[in-house]
Write a sequence for this structure.
């Protein structure tokens, strides 16, 4: 029986123009797909409808085509699949692993600031959720829901780790990280580092962590290539995969590109867009050289994972 082809993806959010960092991420995944003889997908992560704009979706496709990237159709758009994410969060609710959090940002900030000692931080450097509303009486929860108070659904990390231990016998997770030569290294991480993180946002009926985990599984993604800034989030994604019974992909977290100030390139900082570079007359080869992927060997032969 022929083994299924590897599946890789590039999953941008259409809330701004793509820049060199996005080009690196897209090309790393596309190059790996070619080297492995795999399939390459584009997924539009547009669940944040307040910030996402249709003009950016069109521009994403134009930028990727300019980079010489091809992808399979149809393109999955997260905004059209909210019920899929809701089904996953409903299952976590039934398992008793989520709880409603009505706390506002101000309340959370005040609780963190008034707690004794320096605040514990998650891997992104944000103070861990201080536990407000974690043990609300059922009557109060029902009353708040009846008043239609906005709420998020947070993961009860203690219970989630109990569930993890019941499945794997461990309270940590492991995943396989591909090094620059494509060799897998087993990494062990502790998802407890994230605390009671948000799984369903107040303003959007899912979160990045839940949606990306569900989508990678249903699209059959076998190799997740993304920036090093998402390396720590893999522990949370692996936790969700195990509890939801989803397959485990391989991972490769590539280097990040920094601007003149030394910080990671970002849309919010207004870093030079791919469209602007294209209008300046930059060609594909020059673009690849700028992101450190100068290899231009024929399709199917290149595979720079740096």
């Amino acid at each position: 029986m022929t083994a299924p082809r590897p599946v890789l993806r590039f999953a941008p959010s259409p809330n701004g123009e793509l820049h060199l960092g996005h080009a690196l991420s897209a090309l790393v995944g596309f190059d790996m797909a070619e080297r492995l003889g795999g399939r390459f997908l584009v997924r539009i992560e547009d669940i944040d409808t307040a910030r996402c704009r249709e003009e950016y979706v069109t521009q994403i496709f134009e930028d990727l085509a300019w980079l010489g990237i091809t992808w399979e159709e149809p393109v999955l758009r997260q905004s059209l699949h909210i019920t899929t994410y809701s089904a996953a969060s409903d299952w976590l609710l039934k398992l008793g692993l989520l709880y409603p959090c009505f706390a506002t940002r101000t309340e959370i900030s005040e609780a963190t600031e008034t707690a004794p000692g320096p605040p514990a931080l998650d891997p992104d450097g944000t103070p861990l959720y201080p536990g407000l509303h974690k043990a609300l009486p059922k009557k109060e929860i029902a009353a708040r829901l009846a008043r239609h108070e906005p709420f998020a659904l947070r993961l009860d990390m203690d219970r989630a780790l109990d569930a993890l231990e019941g499945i794997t016998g461990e309270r940590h997770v492991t995943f396989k990280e591909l090094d620059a030569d494509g060799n897998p290294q087993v990494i062990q991480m502790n998802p407890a580092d994230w605390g009671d993180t948000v799984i369903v946002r107040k303003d959007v009926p899912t979160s990045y962590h839940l949606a990306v985990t569900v989508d990678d599984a249903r699209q059959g993604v076998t190799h997740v290539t993304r920036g090093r800034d998402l390396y720590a989030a893999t522990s949370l994604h692996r936790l969700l995969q195990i509890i939801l019974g989803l397959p485990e992909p391989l991972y490769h977290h590539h280097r990040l590109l920094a601007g003149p100030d030394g910080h990671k390139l970002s849309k919010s900082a207004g870093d030079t867009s791919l469209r602007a570079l294209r209008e300046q007359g930059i060609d594909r080869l020059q673009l690849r050289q700028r992101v450190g992927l100068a290899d231009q060997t024929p399709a199917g032969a290149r595979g720079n994972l740096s």
